[in-house]
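Handout, section 4.2: multi-component inputs.
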Amino acid sequence: MKELSLHILDIIDNSLRAGANLIHLNIEEDFGLNRIRISIKDNGRGIPANLLSRAANPFFTTRATRRVGLGLSLFMKAAERCGGFFNIDSAEDKGTKVEAEFRMDHIDLAPMGDIRGTIKGLIMGNPDIDLVYSHQSGNRRFDLDTRAVRAEFGNAPFNHPLAMRYLFGVIDEGLDGLKKAGS
Amino acid sequence: MAKVTIEDLKRIKEQITRETALREGDAAVRITVHMGTSGIAAGAREVMGALLEEMNETDRRDIRIITSGCTDLCRNEPNVTVEIKGQAPVVYQFMDADKMRKVFKQHVLKGEIQKEYVLAEN
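Output:
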């Protein structure tokens, strides 16, 4: 993957396929400690304990249609390549948590890329799931909890054009604010 | 972006609730962007972004965008499926932002299938 934000989209896609309807996404860019930490937690059906150790093996997949599964293994390799670590924790019927850390000045580190495209695409493509997104960059922070927005809108769908415009405004404004922190 | 006031939110909510009540359950068009590792690596997010921009520009309220998992047609990704009510679904292949805009303007809005990008018509 060319961007960290594409890995994030991919890992959350796993969560959605596992029946999750609530996703926690945390991104911490810590310039002092020279690291980026990404964690994704879902309430999907989880991975049985006997399969968990193989979940990030590219030659393991639960799908019947083909014999490779690449999403988790690509994310793990990216973290390990950048002097960081990768961890996956899961409990059946409770959910899965995936964490990865990257050394910020590592030459092989992919850029964060279009994180707002990832967030917007996720929300609009899956208007029934909730996303709790927290993004810290230096001393600035952006939080978005779609459950709160949903309450404001009285459960009106997010993919209605008016709701979409409002949400995109919130996301753009929040992430524009973060960008200034990084520069 | 200008700050949104509580009044703005109320107005948006009322309008959405009104319009949603009218058309719940019968979207005339359903557009599916297939994600999954290979689709994402091949550019599905950019396709989705272009689609959202087109949606933002249209006044149509009866079009729904959804994402789904991998189609197992990895070699032909990104894939997009357009389903217009009463018509057979059309699967497009090797999509990118520009092709998506064209499919939206010509197929979704005007009903003209873009044959050059079609993988299959069921």
